[in-house]
Amino acid sequence: MPTIRRLPEHLVNRIAAGEVVERPASALKEIVENAIDAGATQVTVRIASGGLDMIEVTDDGCGMRPDEIALALERHATSKLPDEHIEQVLTLGFRGEALPSIGSVARLTIESRPHDADEGWKRVVDHGEISLDSPAALPPGTRIRVENLFGKVPARRKFLRTPRSEYAACQDVVRRLAMARPDVGFVLEHDGRRVLAVQPREELAARVARLVARELAEDGVVIEAERGSARLTGVAGLPTFNRGVADHQYLFVNGRPVKDRLLVGAVRGAYSDMLARDRHAVLALFLEIPPEEVDVNVHPAKTEVRFRDPAFVRGFLVGALRHALEGAGQRSAQPPSASAMGNWQVEPVAPAAAPAPALGSLFAREYSAPQTRVPPRVSDAGAAWRSYEAEVMAEPAARAEPAAGDAEAEEALHYPLGVARGQVSDTYIVAEADDGLVIVDQHAAHERLVLERLKAAGAEDAMARSQALLLPEVVELEEAACDALEDKLADLARFGLALERFGPGAMLVRAVPSVLGKSDVHALVRDVADDLARNGDALLLGEKLDLVLATMACHGSVRAGRSLSVAEMNALLREMERTPRSGQCNHGRPTWVKLAHQDIEKLFGRK
Known about the structure:
Shape: globular
Largest sheet: 8 strands, mixed
Domain DNA mismatch repair protein S5: 208-326
Keywords: DNA damage, DNA repair, Endonuclease, Hydrolase, Nuclease
Number of helices: 21
CATH superfamily of the domain at 9-198: Histidine kinase-like ATPase, C-terminal domain
CATH class of the domain at 9-198: Alpha Beta
InterPro entries: DNA_mismatch_repair_CS, DNA_mismatch_repair_MutL, DNA_mismatch_S5_2-like, HATPase_C_sf, MutL/Mlh/PMS, MutL/Mlh/Pms-like, MutL_C, MutL_C_dimsub
GO molecular function, one term: endonuclease activity
Family: Belongs to the DNA mismatch repair MutL/HexB family.
């Protein structure tokens, strides 16, 4: 029988390092968090070769005395837990394993000086062995340098990625922590090149737009919501401002960057009927909740959390996001694309002596009219022009008085979407507003209007009506999946899905939502079970019902290719202005675009 023995200290630290230090970005995260917890107002990060060769973090925090530096390099030593109430943690780091773990797999140099000390102190730990302990000259604060990470652990070193990939991970860590603390200034340098610099005491919305996407300043909405003791702030992008991957979703809980499945599921649910399935929102959300309501100690790197009341948190996030997006009205992230605008550019005029080139613009395209078409006679064209001149050059008294309807048209110009002037290809409405030209996709716009009408009329409740199956279906699942479904029977019944437990590894389906029609019952229940395992609640079924609502709206809306009267076009514009989220259709595409007056003037060389 093998003998039980106590592991040596250096091996214990290396094992702990496997949990805390996965890659250079992990070490960087722990060190920067310590700097923030030390009260720093400015943090400077320098890395070389993606952090594989060197990581250096300098801060102006409170600093440490020599005895505190020695204690900080011991396992489970921390200043961030004044008592044993771990559920009251308010700092970013508290486990007391980061520095000794890093020092066991790299050359770690700590230099620190308190603000009331005349000199600093320096200690160097080379892969678990103290190699230097002496005074040091530095300004108040702390400087920590990590070199040759995993240099003596080749089994770990060979699993690291390329310097470019490791640098991207380090940059993401600094970006997230800089967003979490807009009161702190950050500087990031990679291989001697400054790649990020933000000043302290910056507004949250401005900091987020600077670090995530500058377009958020124009194409985002500010989130400010409270419910009970919870508070949510941040910036959320309009549905039309989206990405193909979810790497621009930044989530924070009590100032701590997290990657939580429940929060990600709540974001997806909030955007469910405004984005296509393969598109993702761009946002940064900051949730503040009493510390006793969230467990931040469920992951060694503290990137995952567990909520005491997950249903409350998810409902709060979904409600706050939807309310903010509804407040955006008909706003849409819809600047005309550069390639589309390029088609409108007038090419330079050739010299008079040269033969006229074939122009490729939309307004001067060469073409020969079909022979069957009778060209207008010059005399008729001249008569028409003389008639126009006579009208515009006539004395004011001789001009025709405007009709009564013209006054209404002038008033409509002051509406956000203006007054309809015509239709292109029986698909796009062209309207004139006081600040430019508006082009509306009539099908996409009406699709959103119909969906919002269905919701306002209680269509979602009507959809939840069950359609009983003639013969109940038995769906076999794993026992854990059946347990999760059984816990949510009441919620699923509210959506119209009636289930019963049918033994340890099966569920009996008695009814399905009527609007799902002849759906695959087995696939539906399995999808719901998978979603429960992934998000902790039946978000997927709700999304399926939202998708059905969107499909109904699509089939009930004005189709492309249908000719509309001016009155119908104006009615559509006015309803768009009254309807929330009318700036995008149910699939996240814009419903209208606008060409400002200055853009039109540029097309004709006036500016």
